[in-house]
Design a protein that fits this description.
Layout (H helix, E strand, L loop, with lengths): L17 H16 L5 E5 L2 E5 L1 H4 L4 H8 L3 H5 L1 E3 L5 H13 L10 H4 L8 H10 L1 H4 L12 H9 L64 H4 L8 H13 L3 H15 L9 H13 L9 H10 L7 H9 L1 H11 L6
Parallel strand pairs: 1-3
Antiparallel strand pairs: 1-2
Helix pairs in contact: 5-11, 7-15, 11-12, 11-13, 13-15
Length: about 325
């Protein structure tokens, strides 16, 4: 069996009573030693010796894989090679520590190396290069001998846009009233920051979604460091894998950690690029109705309108239709969903 990677040192809450601390210490010892292990989780070239009683009781996916007549139940090996190794490691650490600790931050490019043409900037440039191929010329409906299409053409002229289609109290569109000098950066800040967020997803998250000051940072050492590392991408990946394998507690924890770094004003300026890249994970790794991280992203644009000046953010938004649509609605003062 492959060697087991030594987990990070266990951090216990000083307020935790002795029995709970004893239980977590025992779990940490089981994980570090591999004693009584009866299951192996693989992800690419990495593997972890785990215990069915620990992980199957926390996830219906693992419970089904081990109890139903699948290959995993007979071989004792669960292959998660399709998932991100970093996210899998954090998930397993959570099973035994009720927490996960990000090590050196790894971006989407670092965990999925393919070629220099990766990441939001390169992807957007590639889209621009292929725009002529992917976007056909506009169809002139007036030339089509079909009464329905002809009627559609007659109703599609710009003058046919009625005033009822746009709320009377909506802010002026930046396309109709071009901003001057630095006015563009104040566009989002002109929107009422107290616009209602979308409903919380059905996970029953109990944290205060508006009081972002209550979210704690990664650690006291990182919070006080001028070069505190960003783990926004890692937290977004952990959130996605927790949703995939129905691990409610881990999903809630990843959301709190993501918000804790996202709204840490002390280091915001150094995290814009990582925030932009984490948006790809947020909008591509979960379903549209999952508002857990999406609402945090939208709130970040409300609180930091200077994001509109970030080239990394611009390229990601251009390449991520879900984010572009929600920011469009935010700009018009409309509900996100």
């Amino acid at each position: 069996m492959p060697s087991i990677q030594q987990p990070p040192a266990l951090k216990l809450d000083t307020k935790m009573d002795a029995p709970n601390a004893e239980l977590l210490t025992a779990f940490a010892s089981l994980f570090s030693s591999g004693k009584y292990s009866d299951l192996t989780v693989q992800c690419g070239e990495r593997s972890w010796a785990v215990h069915k009683a620990v992980i199957c009781s926390r996830s219906e996916f693992f419970d089904g894989a081990c109890s139903l007549p699948f290959k995993e139940s007979s071989t004792g090996v669960i292959d998660l090679s399709e998932d991100d190794p970093e996210a899998v490691e954090h998930m397993i650490n959570y099973f035994y520590h009720l927490d996960y600790l990000s090590k050196s931050p790894k971006s989407r490019r670092a965990t999925q190396p393919s070629s220099p043409a990766s990441g939001p900037r390169a992807r957007a440039q590639q889209l621009s290069a292929n725009a002529a191929v992917r976007m056909p010329g506009k169809l002139d409906l007036a030339l089509v001998e079909d009464p329905l299409l002809a009627q559609a053409h007659a109703q599609s002229v710009p003058s046919a846009i009625s005033a009822t289609e746009i709320p009377s109290n909506a802010p002026a569109s930046p396309l109709l009233t071009p901003p001057h000098t630095n006015d563009r950066i104040d566009y989002f800040s002109s929107i009422d920051a107290k616009l209602p967020l979308s409903p919380v997803d059905a996970q029953g998250l109990d944290d205060d979604r508006l009081d972002y000051s209550s979210y704690e940072s990664e650690s006291e050492d990182e919070a006080g460091s001028d070069d505190a590392p960003s783990h926004l991408i890692a937290h977004a990946k952990v959130y996605a894998i927790a949703e995939k394998y129905a691990i409610t507690g881990l999903k809630s924890l990843a959301r709190r950690k993501y918000a804790g770094q996202l709204f840490d004003d002390n280091h915001w300026s150094s995290r814009t690029a990582d925030f932009a890249e984490s948006m790809i994970e947020v909008y591509e790794s979960t379903v549209d109705t999952d508002r857990g991280l999406r609402d945090l992203v939208i709130q970040a644009f409300r609180e930091h309108p200077e994001l509109a000046r970030s080239k990394d953010v611009e390229l990601v938004v251009r390449d991520t239709p879900g984010a572009a649509w929600e920011l469009f609605r935010l700009g018009w003062g409309l509900p996100i969903c």
